[in-house]
């Protein structure tokens, strides 16, 4: 079964590498590994589980002059259901809902209260 390496970056904790199958959400893999991440609705309608993609394997290889550009979250994850809690511009800025996000590539994702604060509350809650 295909799986991907997802590195979680959280403030105050060492980076944690998850092995996530393509049918498993990143939150499910984190819980299986004993990593505690905040979550509430588990269906993409709040922003409690939000993270931000900070790196995608294979994106912009060999082009070091684009360090200011944010990785394309669509290259890193697909969704089990529509991520209602995120606006299009938030998805374009790399934000992902870990409770419904299925990996599509090896990637690095930042999570924690500061990422949650950047996105704010969902209009669907
Ligand atoms: S826990 Fe609500 S969107 Fe993920």
Automatic annotation (TrEMBL):
Domain 2Fe-2S ferredoxin-type per the UniProt entry, residue ranges: 4-115
Cofactor(s) this protein cannot do without: [2Fe-2S] cluster
Family to which this protein belongs: Belongs to the 2Fe2S plant-type ferredoxin family.
Keywords: 2Fe-2S, Electron transport, Iron, Iron-sulfur, Metal-binding, Transport
Protein's name in the database: Ferredoxin
InterPro entries for this protein: 2Fe-2S_ferredoxin-like_sf, 2Fe-2S_ferredoxin-type, 2Fe2S_fd_BS, Beta-grasp_dom_sf
Source organism (scientific name): Natrialba magadii (strain ATCC 43099 / DSM 3394 / CCM 3739 / CIP 104546 / IAM 13178 / JCM 8861 / NBRC 102185 / NCIMB 2190 / MS3) (Natronobacterium magadii)
Domain of life: Archaea
A single MF term (Gene Ontology): metal ion binding
Pfam family for this entry, one: Fer2
